[in-house]
Fold this sequence. Notes:
Elements: H1 11-31, H2 38-45, H3 49-55, H4 59-82, H5 88-105, H6 107-119, H7 121-144, H8 153-173, H9 180-193
Amino acid sequence: MTAPVKKPKTARGQRTLRNLLDAAALEFGSKGYHDASVAGITSKAGIAQGTFYIYFSSKEEIFRELVLDLGRTLREELSANVAGAPDRLTAERQGLGYFIQFVRDHPHLYRIVMEAQYVDESAFRKYFTDFASAYSVKLQRALVQGEIRSGPTDERAWALLGISLFLGLRYGLWGHERPVDEVVDAVMDLVEHGLRQPPEQGVARD
């Protein structure tokens, strides 16, 4: 596993690092990992190639950092989006809708994450394990507060992540023919009620 990138201490250095990561997102997102280059990143960032190597040793290193940065950013945005939700199921609904729309608005970012499984498997794994860990904590909190029924939060976190992952592919990247709200309604019916047929209601008799 690559050593963590050293974070710059000055505001100027932090801005340069942010500029490089934003440029890398455009470069990798538009060309894919193998066709992207350090020269393309620095050109998009408007900095000299020598400056790049102050922050990163290689294309591989900035790609890894970009994947992890995308994960941190998305987790922060999702948390902010559901911060006002009155309960966990409402938060699930809001978060799922936000995520699908995010993929539609930023398809190149989602492609970068998916490509990571072939470029840097450890970064790909960390992207999702960090998501799952944070997710499990939130589910545990909801369980303690009586918002969801008892059950293993780790397995549930991964299952819900899997739902989001493939909905992002199907309705974020591959097709926009259905409104996001319709997709979310259909999936939340499954999340809230499962697949089991409810018991037949007794027929009222005179």
